[in-house]
Amino acid sequence: MIDTHCHLDAAEFDGDRREVHAAAQALGVAKLVVPAVAVAGFAKTRQTVTQYAGCVAAYGIHPLYVMQAAEGDLVALRQWLADENPVAVGEIGLDHYVSGVDPLRQEYYFVEQLKLAREFDLPVLLHVRRAVDPVLKQLRRFRVRGGIAHAFNGSRQQAEAFIQLGFALGFGGAMTFTGSTRIRALAAELPLESIVLETDAPDIPPAWLNGGRNTPAELPAIADVLAELRGMTRDAVVAATVANTRRVLPSI
Q1: Which of 4, 9, 40, 212 has the most C-beta neighbours closer than 10 Å?
Q2: Which domains, and CATH codes, for the chain?
């Protein structure tokens, strides 16, 4: 299995990162994509993916971190993309849910990072919250080689728009709640080739964790939920989602 979005470098794992990684690997989570969120954390992201088998990095400036970012951070990001051969630019995007984060500043950093992704011919890992249409607007203006719309929570029409632009859609913990009817319907009905699996650990815990810390070891059970929703076996879901991940993140 491949966890396409796991913040294994996060401070929440500083006390037991080795055990968390080992538990996931023991359950068959062979690869983890670790997206950075700010230039200040790039070195820790690199250290994490270097130290733990099967981990690969993406580098980017998260929309909720743009208020602390400086113009020089884009120069630094460009150098990291040139030197480190990441699997993607990310985590980047727009977040119109959290207050106090200037949407124009978010848009500026998003657009500049799309330009970098295009320059380096890299896919992108998208953070999209209450901002699906504005993100799609910029993706149509600055065409990149696709990637993953992480934690997808849009409409069927918006899902199809991402797919047409070469993106897969990330499904994880939110899909495990019976009340998440729209997300579960999309997971059941979208073309299987458009879906990848993720945890977003330590965030977006699945229903059975009751709000506790999420870890990549939850991915097999998340895969089971997708399999149940689609009337498939776990093995079939895993085979398809791994193939999808390798298509949209070809250097993985």
Answers
A1: 4
A2: 2-248 (3.20.20.140)
